[in-house]
Design a protein that fits this description.
Radius of gyration: 21 Å
Helix content: 40-55%
Number of strands: 9
Distance between the termini: 37 Å
Strand order of the largest sheet: 2-3-7-6
Number of domains: 3
Length: about 375
């Protein structure tokens, strides 16, 4: 058993009372279907609608928009329980997209979209990355041209989570040629949208999370779907959410580390080798001790960052560090612990194998770890 982490004020009885039904709902209603979802390459949208009906999808959204008005920590706990169960972190992207609308949408836009996002009737994606544009958003090429009361959108996006299962996209587009000042965010509802096409991509991991290419061929959307009162605010809007986005990556990293450690410890205490338990071999005990130490440090750091996020005091550099270090350690820990399972650790039906392969993308998406290092170094 890991040492009990410091109890921050956000770690109260209320949030644990929220965690329990989330965990039970996932175990009863979602986990039994995960193999089928992995096979088909996505979780059906109606599943997320059920998650929303339980109040688990956007608990942090205000009651006037269909949420519970809970602190952001409730969203992090729901995400933690999904990843702990080996389910995709699709709700993280949904939450970020919803926060763009919450923070920058007009009253009319909030009333139109947020209640449906909270219930799961709408499931959201964010489309920033393009085939020639990853972390450097200043060079994105997908263009939205104003024609009367509409925008006409042409271009493509790639590596878009929820691109297939979702039906609302917060889309980063170029509305002028002024570099970063020429980027805007436009909300696109994709059901039965003329000129819009999706291609699902095959990945080495996260098989039940759909990742897609999106194509826009003279797609027309109302000009009223622009987020913010004027064009050109998209880059600043995207940058303003980065601390929260990094925490949506760091928190599940720790959850996976903890669950992998539990699985490996249980296996080591059951597995017989050379007439004794695998756990009784000194190498095994040392390896588990090392992994337990790293996992406890990661949990302590992330819990502290969560408190700072809730207090409005989480500086971007700490968020970059959380994303960088926790994702690095997630890959290290799952690799080290898989080794204890021997050949069984390489079998896809074993959770440790899935955790191992699913973890690798954590160092890539949400800002590559090399970018995190550069951003941290700028403040040194």
């Amino acid at each position: 058993m890991l040492p009990k982490p410091h109890q921050h004020t956000w770690m109260d009885a209320d949030i644990e009372a929220f965690r329990d039904p989330v965990r039970r709902y996932i175990a009863n209603e979602m986990t039994p279907h995960n193999d089928a979802w992995r096979e088909q390459g996505h979780v059906p949208r109606e599943v997320w609608q059920g998650f929303g009906e339980m109040g688990f999808l956007l608990p942090e959204i205000g009651e006037e928009y269909g949420g519970a008005g809970a602190p952001l920590s409730y969203q992090l706990v729901a995400l933690e329980e999904l990843t702990r169960a080996g389910l995709p972190p699709s709700t993280a992207v949904h939450s970020i997209a919803s926060h763009y609308i919450l923070d920058y949408g007009s009253d009319e836009q909030k009333r139109k979209w947020l209640p449906k996002l909270a219930s799961g009737e709408l499931f959201a994606a964010i489309a920033m990355t393009e085939p020639g544009c990853g972390s450097d958003l200043k060079v994105l090429r997908t263009r939205a041209r104003r024609e009367g009361d509409e925008y006409v959108i042409n271009g493509s996006k790639t590596f878009i989570t929820n691109g297939y299962s979702g039906n609302l996209v917060v889309l980063a587009v170029r509305t002028s040629d002024e570099g970063a000042k020429g980027i805007s965010l436009i909300v696109v509802e994709t059901d039965n949208l003329k000129g819009f096409a999706v291609n699902k991509l095959k990945k080495i991991g996260l098989h039940s999370s759909d990742t897609c290419e999106l194509f826009f061929d003279s797609v027309r959307v109302p000009a009223a779907n622009l987020l913010g009162p004027v064009e050109g605010n998209g880059f600043a809007q995207l940058m303003s959410q980065l601390s929260y986005e990094r925490m949506l990556l760091a928190v599940p990293a720790v959850a996976v580390m903890e669950r992998a450690l539990e699985l490996a410890t249980d296996y080591a205490k059951e597995r017989q080798m050379f007439g004794q338990r695998l756990f009784d071999l000194q190498n095994t005990r040392f390896k588990l001790a090392e992994c337990a130490t790293i996992t406890h440090v990661a949990r302590t750091f992330v819990n502290d960052c969560t408190q700072r996020l809730l207090d409005g005091k989480l500086d971007p550099q700490a968020a970059y560090m959380a994303k960088l270090w926790c994702s690095d350690m997630q890959c290290k820990i799952t690799d080290e612990l898989l080794q204890l399972f021997g050949g069984y650790g390489y079998m896809d039906e074993y959770p440790i194998a899935r955790f191992f392969v699913d973890s690798r993308v954590q160092k890539i998406y949400g800002g590559a770890n090399e970018v995190m290092k550069d951003l941290i170094a700028r403040q040194l």
